[in-house]
Amino acid sequence: MWVLTDARWLPKAGNARDEYEDACWPAGVGRGGDGRAPFRCAIADGATETSFAGCWAEALVGAFGAGRFDAEGLPGALPALQRAWRDRVGARPLPWYAEEKLRSGAFAAFLGLTLSAPAPGEAGGAWEAVAVGDSCLFALRGERLLGAFPLAAPEEFDRRPTLIASEPAGNGALAASIERAGGAWEGGDEFFLLTDALARWFLAATELGDAPWTALRALTPGADGADAAEADEGFAGWVAGLRGAGDLRNDDVTLLRAVVHADPAPAPAAAEDHCDAGGEPPAGG
Amino acid sequence: MAYSAEISRTNPSCFLFLIDRSGSMEDDWAGEPGKQKAEGLATIINRLLQNLVIKCAKSEGVRDYYHVGVLGYGGKVEPAFSGPLAGKELAPVSAIADGPARIEERTKKTDDGAGGLVEQTIKFPIWFDAVAGGGTPMCGALARARQTLAGWIGEHPASFPPIVINITDGEAIDGDPTAAAEGLKALTTDDGNLLLFNLHLSSQRAAPVQFPASEDGLPDRYAKLLFRLSSPLPPFMRGVAEQEGLPADDGARGFVFNADMVSVIQFLDIGTRPNNLR
After folding, report:
1. Closest alpha carbon within chain B to A109
2. Distance, in angstroms, between A215 CA and closest chain B CA?
3. Which ipTM was obtained for this model?
4. Which of A15, A34, B6, B148 has the fewest Cβ atoms within 10 Å of its own Cβ atom?
């Protein structure tokens, strides 16, 4: 098994790049999953109305990507992540309002995808996803949308999702909010992980009978050989167009595309390690 | 669609609070026995400002999603801030954050996330202390608000419309405030009419009321008048109120009786607000 990934992101229009509060793992363009170990990727979306949410989103995707929790292990992994977040953000004196805001904690939507290698002699393997909130996974086989998870229609999005809190008191109802899904993958299957604004656009387009994945594929440099800078520029122009037309809510946007292959991996591409195509910190803000 | 403008630093909205500082505010407040209405008002306006600042606070500081003003009326109508904000009719919310008169520490019991309670020391900024004296020129306050906000709207024509929150016992001495209130509500941005909400502090011992759809059941003529002066809640606000556990029926107005109005700040959308954020 090997997996080609490409992550694109942009802050909300009017915000600086360092105010982006989504996060993704891995960042930029890369290849992973070589060998028998499971491949993991994730996105998270820090809630605007909370502070230090980008750090929290980054902590969640980083821990998932490093295998510190899986679809079942999220609640158990949180105490250590919460302590680390508190140590990171509470290290310096803050003005009264920042202190009070910090007391409520940060919140983030989270979506993680695990692809398991095929069993010996098999041409495909299993995928498993875990989600809290409104970041969505779309599984594609060729031109067929296999499924959308955890939300399946644009009207299911609201501005008040239940999210993962960095303070234990905020997670009283977390267990009931963790969604899980799974299935079998075949070589060439694609997975799109999208934060809420883009996911909502995707679902609205599919309801109209369109194939929104065509546009998303065209934005990935792996697909057409465009270099990272061109891909960033193309993504920014495409997002601005959708926002200008009123088809995409003005919010941070993150797109992570993963294409899984069962065949033996070809020779490594020039950039084997994941890199940030934007040349800046790729996750969190 | 009205009331859908994005609130951002480049397209901010505005809150203007009108606070009744008249002599009648020395009377007992039924909302909290043992307190004067003026003390109740000070607690309410300080909490409103505190919540507004915290809503706009991010890790790097306070984002100026709102311009904020406080006009006091007790004898005369004038900007009510003291200290560095003295004399200012409107200021960016970051200036409000940096300008409380003092910061007190209070203790509060909070959920520890493990089924217990833990006592925490919290910082409570004070911008206003209780003040009571003079008459209640409510018509004058509404007219001054109109003048201030007409200028602001001229500079921010595409904004989410300003919200005026009038906190009073309702006993105006300068006539029926209906015409002045209608004049204020007639101000409009490209996104809709200005919203006038009223918070009635009363000595009447009656159950608190939040966002009623009818004046039936309100305890006195002052409450009924303030209800009639209040703008209907836009449908999206009613939706958020319901999500917050505050039933707001069709026709619900921005009026509360002997209750706070912090929920109005949470009604406004500046980005994702987690359902589990308390």
Report:
1. B274
2. 26
3. 0.88
4. A34
